[in-house]
Structures are given as C-alpha cells and as structure tokens.
Amino acid sequence: MNPKNKKIMAALFTGVFCIFVFAGLAYFFYRLDEAPGLIRFLYGSLFTGLCFGMSCVVTERIEEIRKGETDDLDNY
Question: Which sequence spans correspond to the domains of the chain?
C-alpha cells in the first residue's frame, strides 16, 4: 500500500471515530430528560459543532496529504 494511502486511511479512521463519538454525545445530551432544556441544547450544539469542525479538519488533512505537504508529527 502506498504511504500516502496509509496516511489518508489513518486520518479518515481517526476523524470518523471522533465524529461518531461526538455525534453520540450530542445525541445523548439531546435525549437527556433530567437536564434543563437550555443545558441539553447547549451541550448538544457543542458536540454537533465539534462534529462539523472535525470533518473540516479531516478534509483539510487529506488535501495536505494529496499535495505532498510534510507532517510535523513525522519528525518525532
């Protein structure tokens, strides 16, 4: 397998895993009946925003890998 493909797969796996975790937490807070509505909305919106942010980061990272830009983490 091409090293670029490995990096893309790692970025996708990590991003999708984080998005599922954040989406699960957002769903949990939206469905939480014991908390006041404002708290449920704020926490649910926070995790929904994190899902969106993570998708943007993963998309940007894949573009960087395709362009051939080096990753600073490879130096460590």
Answer: 3-67
